[in-house]
TrEMBL record, chain A:
It holds the Pfam family MoCoBD_2. SUPFAM superfamilies: Molybdenum cofactor-binding domain. Residues 238-317 form the Aldehyde oxidase/xanthine dehydrogenase a/b hammerhead domain. Coiled coil: none annotated. One of its GO terms (molecular function) is oxidoreductase activity. It comes from the Bacteria. InterPro entries: Ald_Oxase/Xan_DH_a/b, AldOxase/xan_DH_MoCoBD1, AldOxase/xan_DH_MoCoBD2, AldOxase/xan_DH_Mopterin-bd_sf, N-heterocyclic_Hydroxylase, OxRdtase_Mopterin-bd_su_IorB, TAT_signal. This is CO/xanthine dehydrogenase Mo-binding subunit. Residues 619-641 are annotated as: Disordered. Transmembrane segments: none annotated.
TrEMBL record, chain B:
Its EC number is 1.3.99.16. PANTHER family: BLR6218 PROTEIN, OXIDOREDUCTASE WITH IRON-SULFUR SUBUNIT. Residues 1-76 form the 2Fe-2S ferredoxin-type domain. GO terms for molecular function: 2 iron, 2 sulfur cluster binding; isoquinoline 1-oxidoreductase activity; metal ion binding. It comes from Novosphingobium taihuense. This is Isoquinoline 1-oxidoreductase alpha subunit. It comes from the Bacteria. SUPFAM superfamilies: 2Fe-2S ferredoxin-like, CO dehydrogenase ISP C-domain like. Keywords: 2Fe-2S, Iron, Iron-sulfur, Metal-binding, Oxidoreductase. InterPro entries: 2Fe-2S-bd (IPR002888), 2Fe-2S-bd_dom_sf (IPR036884), 2Fe-2S_ferredoxin-like_sf (IPR036010), 2Fe-2S_ferredoxin-type (IPR001041), 2Fe2S_fd_BS (IPR006058), Beta-grasp_dom_sf (IPR012675), Diverse_Oxidoreductases (IPR051452). PROSITE patterns: 2FE2S_FER_1 (PS00197), 2FE2S_FER_2 (PS51085).
Amino acid sequence: MIRSPSKSEAKIIYDINVHGARLMGVSRRGFLTAGGTLAAVFAMGGRSAVARVNASKANLHAHSAATVNGWIEILSDNTVLLRTGKCDFGQSTIYTAYRQIVAEELCVPLEAMTEVVSGDTDRTPDGGGTFGLLRYGQNLRKVAALMREASLELAARRLAVPRANLSVREGVISGATKAISYGELLAGEDLHLVIPISGDLTMPMGLRVDADPPLKPVKDYTIIGKPVFNPSIAPKVTGKTVWVGDVTLPGMLHARTIHPATLGSTLIAPGKLDGKQFPGARLVRIGNLLAVVSPDEWEAVQAAQSVADGCEWSKWEGLPPSERLEDHLRMMATEDPTPVRDGRANKGNASSVKTTRELRASYLMPYHKHAPISPMVSLADYREDGSVWLHTHSQNPQHLRRMIALMLGSDEDKVVVRTYPGAGHYGRSNGGSAGSEDEAVLLSRELRRPVRVQWMRSDDMQWSTQSPAMISDIRIALDDAGRMAAYVASHIGPGMQDDRLVGALLAGMPVIPAPSPATTYGFQSTVLNMSDTWVYGTVPAVLEQAKGGAHPGQHEATDVVGLRSHSMRTPIQFQQNCPREIAISEAAMLAGKDPLQFRLDHVSDPRFVAILERLRTEAKWEDRPSPSPQAKSHGSDPVKGQGVSIMLRDNGYWACAAQVTVIPASGEVKVERMTIVADVGIVINPLQLRRQIQAGCLMGVSQALHEELSFDKGAVTAKDWTGYPILTMAEMPELKVVITDNPTVGIYGQGSESANALASPAIAAAVMDATGKPIRRIPLKPEYVRAAIKLHA
Amino acid sequence: MSTIVVNGQQRKVKASPDTPLLYVLRNELGVMGVKFGCGLAQCGACSVLLGDEEVRACVTPISALEGKPVTTVDGLPQRWASQKGKMSAGTLHPVQQAWIDEQVPQCGICQFGMMIKVTELLEANPKPTDQDIREALTTSGPSPHLCRCGSYAAILEGAHRAAKLMMQGESA
Ligand code: FES
Ligand code: FES
């Protein structure tokens, strides 16, 4: 602290080091009657950048890519504003867990966290995709801890009490009989805490706080662990929330895009727009991007349909039809140059382990759709000065902004992306785009009017990305005692993500690089990682490999759209864990062991032992070998079966049991009961976590029973909910969710992923238990179950 | 020009008679508690009550309303108030209150239709069983009411709580 030389202005210039951050600013206390803040601001480039920052705010602007004010601002009215570049996708984390984390570290009441600003490129810090939210919750936790420590330093000076004698409770800093609230401390101040960060704002992982302040001990928590309500629910159910589809602008036109006949067609001749029938409508063409706009939405819908009927598109047959998917993936495995990736747990010489008893099997996971209940919708406003405002629903608005700027050939500063609540689409926009955004921008630029593009159900089914398929070859060798001696798995599938803007591709505008083995941009790669974490620590020899490749159709030409991949809830781990867990259940069958006990015999981590033991009781598991003694593979009488699966993700431990009945003759599967036991570490909000897990589990049951994308040689053939059915309420099983709070691990647990991946392998194993026949393909549609029974008759 | 009754109010409408109610409510009348999901009567995101019956606004032209009043989620508090003979809509509809109490929604986009369907059910059947609720939301209408987020378990709990609140004749 330096006393200013000027006597007339009794200002204090602060420059205090706080655990690697710098508390800076000029105190004009006594000169101002109202206001006052302490704001967290960033210094990009890590710790060394903090030292270079001078106290001028203009300089700070230059260092913070998105906004001058960072994650947290404490105001003199004792409220706290939280800004996050992450968005809410219906799991409420940013409104519940994030507020709880910050309030806990700052030691203020939760009610002080009055406002959350999220996902607007001009108003919020940090970027990255909206996934692993609680991993990034560590950023917030650290920023809040730094803010608390900075405030304690200030208070020590103000109260003339040594820092070590001060503590904070309920928003009041006290010690040695003196006390001051955050608000009183900050009245009249304009202070910022410069926090070192590193990373890249627009890339998938976003920014990272580069400091290690002391964190509040878990045992002192009073807010984390409470069943806090999600404040965004009441405005939603009362109709007050402005959803992305509700945003309007004066002079706005409604657009419907007319997408090509196939994923590789070019436009030969557009259909005719009948001006008499649709007097307000207008046809717009930019390359192969075709759209009808009208001030009247219903007119746009009808006119687009009539134009679409008359369009002539070139023929294109660059896809393997979905019934030939396995052959295609096998061919890709040998012909695609993408290198193989090894699993981290590989050990021993698994391929050469000799045995008399072994399982050798191949498992096929289909393409899945994210399938939001409302199709994508965006509103763009391209202005005369070349700036564009884009109103949309995106999990990664910063990267969307970068891609829009690239498409337009303009500065990123010219693009503002504002996000709103929308239909949950579970990862589809983690790279920025979910569809419609770029089309709205291009049409608005063309027409110089705000344009709202609403995709129809068929656009969303046929032109959005999909979660990639996988074929997995697994070999499990058993020793004489029936224990696993070796595990070998080879997973083959297209790369996880292609974030190129589909409208830009159609219009022939610049896009980010296509996925290839060499692409290092974001998640754009054909490389497939081993995403499933190996958990059977006692198996002596393990070899897991993943072989990626281009997405179907991609190699035809660089501007061909093809069947683009995209991460979806529990991405790639779903596709690798499911075959592994079915195979483990099959191996248990081969060994004549209870599949739950078989897992207990092979896991090494005590957290798995604890949840598997718990699952045994909670699920009323029958301790017996599989198949069931009553198993039957024929007849119309229902047979019962049980199955189990486990997963480790983001330090969360999961176990799941499924109880089913099967009619062997028809192949019908009814899921009777699902039980999930989760140890995710510190539970921030048991109420919201329980809801997330229940919902995730049911999405998983949906994936297990119904979901599979169908396509022919040119196009996705599923156009609506009849072509891509999902679970209905009538099919909902009895559901039991057990959350074991485990604060000893010191890490916040994730609940929004994992739960959806557990159902498929548990249900498949239960069908095997009921029928005695291997099930190596999902979904468990009656025809596939019948085929599996017949194949192994 | 035609007149339709929406959430207790007479509204003049310019749209042509073949226009689906969905677009008229949202774009002409600014009633936003009805959402576009499929436009094909396959999902239930656009459900409204026509009189006492749930219909799909995306496929119901305004010419088919036959003078019956339309209720959307926005009008549920008022519907409840008038059923209780209260003068003003000071409290939420029990279904809305239950949806908050039970923290039902995940993303929430399907819940507009879910709440409308459950309101229809509870007005006709004040003490539904699990089975009644499942059937209402699956087989009773033109299609199942779909939820991608998998909130069905929460919806079941929400519907039972709403039934209790309705019996008590209070919601807040
Ligand atoms: S939008 Fe009307 S039923 Fe889907
Ligand atoms: S809550 Fe998201 S679709 Fe139902």
